[in-house]
Amino acid sequence: MKINNIPYRTIWPTADGAVEIIDQTRLPHEFVTVRLESMRDAEFAIRSMQVRGAPLIGVAAAYGVALSMKHHATDAALKATCDMLAKARPTAVNLSWAVERMRALLLPLQACERADAAWLEAGRIAEQDVKINQAIGRHGREHIQVIHLEKGDTVNILTHCNAGWLATVDWGTALAPVYTAFEAGIPLHVWVDETRPRNQGASLTAWELAQHGIPHTVIVDNAGGHLMQHGLVDMVIVGCDRVTAHGDVCNKIGTYLKALAAFDNGVPFYVAMPISTLDLTLLDGVLEIPIEEREQEEVTHVSGLCDDGQVRRVRLTPEGSKAANYGFDVTPARLVTGLITERGVVAANTAAILAALAD
């Protein structure tokens, strides 16, 4: 996608064997790129959320393995690298998927072969992510177009958190249908949940939509139900970090409440995801998906651009008040209208999911 009309991806290899990323902790007020030269740089980027979004952290981890193999390519180094990167964040299945794909490819190879093979494989994973997201965009656009033709007016789409191109290598998951519909000339408007506590909606989704010229409005997290009650939301599209074999969806905290409101008001609720986000080892999302608990400070403090042009961090809560910071929640399959994948829109149930995998 574009930043100030210049095409960018969120992660890219350099000519001298390093990797560069967009530091998403600095957006929207500063556009900064960071150079990764080692596995530990990649692990820090994932853990600190310089890169975030399930598909992107998988690609970042793959490049982390490749960077490690440049320096140490023994069996012990490969194991230590993969184990450390897989633990960088616990909820998104794409992370472990990418790491295990790299491990499986490299383990049978001689140590002297691993660096080149890892670099090529990380690049393939990145390119596959772009193609997958483009396909998600095409399939999702069809549903936006149907609503537009039925309504004969602008399609209002609500999204939660950031599942745009900043959460992937390019195009995004939940926003890929928005971008493809917009480029096809379908009139649309996006309601952007702020997404406390890290404000990925207000900071990242709004920023990238603005860069692309897409009409949007930032709303507080608790406004979605009100908008649905008054007929101001035509569909909800969110991303996800893990989907169970039964179709339960794990996404940013607050997604479940949007799904409940959508169900109560007859608003279609779609989840955009690559097939790699499926975790067929899990059946009950609420009981089995590990939910990341992050630092209290993300809730108690907030950063923003002050009137003097400086970005500052300030406390919101009283000194001494504890804060709980659950990063994700689980939306039961019964509340999901459909899963928008690279293979088409799939019903959120075991039979449909297994059929999609077979295809």
UniProtKB/TrEMBL annotation:
<keyword id="KW-0028">Amino-acid biosynthesis</keyword>
<protein>
    <recommendedName>
        <fullName>Methylthioribose-1-phosphate isomerase</fullName>
        <ecNumber>5.3.1.23</ecNumber>
    </recommendedName>
</protein>
<keyword id="KW-0486">Methionine biosynthesis</keyword>
<dbReference type="InterPro" id="IPR027363">
    <property type="entry name" value="M1Pi_N"/>
</dbReference>
<feature type="active site" description="Proton donor">
    <location>
        <position position="241"/>
    </location>
</feature>
<dbReference type="GO" id="GO:0046523">
    <property type="term" value="F:S-methyl-5-thioribose-1-phosphate isomerase activity"/>
</dbReference>
<dbReference type="GO" id="GO:0019509">
    <property type="term" value="P:L-methionine salvage from methylthioadenosine"/>
</dbReference>
<dbReference type="InterPro" id="IPR037171">
    <property type="entry name" value="NagB/RpiA_transferase-like"/>
</dbReference>
<keyword id="KW-0396">Initiation factor</keyword>
<feature type="binding site">
    <location>
        <begin position="251"/>
        <end position="252"/>
    </location>
    <ligand>
        <name>substrate</name>
    </ligand>
</feature>
<comment type="similarity">
    <text>Belongs to the EIF-2B alpha/beta/delta subunits family. MtnA subfamily.</text>
</comment>
<comment type="function">
    <text>Catalyzes the interconversion of methylthioribose-1-phosphate (MTR-1-P) into methylthioribulose-1-phosphate (MTRu-1-P). Also catalyzes the interconversion of 5-deoxyribose 1-phosphate and 5-deoxyribulose 1-phosphate. Part of a bifunctional DHAP-shunt salvage pathway for SAM by-products.</text>
</comment>
<dbReference type="InterPro" id="IPR000649">
    <property type="entry name" value="IF-2B-related"/>
</dbReference>
<feature type="site" description="Transition state stabilizer">
    <location>
        <position position="161"/>
    </location>
</feature>
<comment type="pathway">
    <text>Amino-acid biosynthesis; L-methionine biosynthesis via salvage pathway; L-methionine from S-methyl-5-thio-alpha-D-ribose 1-phosphate: step 1/6.</text>
</comment>
<dbReference type="InterPro" id="IPR005251">
    <property type="entry name" value="IF-M1Pi"/>
</dbReference>
<dbReference type="Pfam" id="PF01008">
    <property type="entry name" value="IF-2B"/>
</dbReference>
<keyword id="KW-0413">Isomerase</keyword>
<feature type="binding site">
    <location>
        <position position="89"/>
    </location>
    <ligand>
        <name>substrate</name>
    </ligand>
</feature>
<dbReference type="GO" id="GO:0003743">
    <property type="term" value="F:translation initiation factor activity"/>
</dbReference>
<feature type="binding site">
    <location>
        <position position="200"/>
    </location>
    <ligand>
        <name>substrate</name>
    </ligand>
</feature>
<dbReference type="InterPro" id="IPR042529">
    <property type="entry name" value="IF_2B-like_C"/>
</dbReference>
<dbReference type="InterPro" id="IPR011559">
    <property type="entry name" value="Initiation_fac_2B_a/b/d"/>
</dbReference>
<feature type="binding site">
    <location>
        <begin position="52"/>
        <end position="54"/>
    </location>
    <ligand>
        <name>substrate</name>
    </ligand>
</feature>
<keyword id="KW-0648">Protein biosynthesis</keyword>
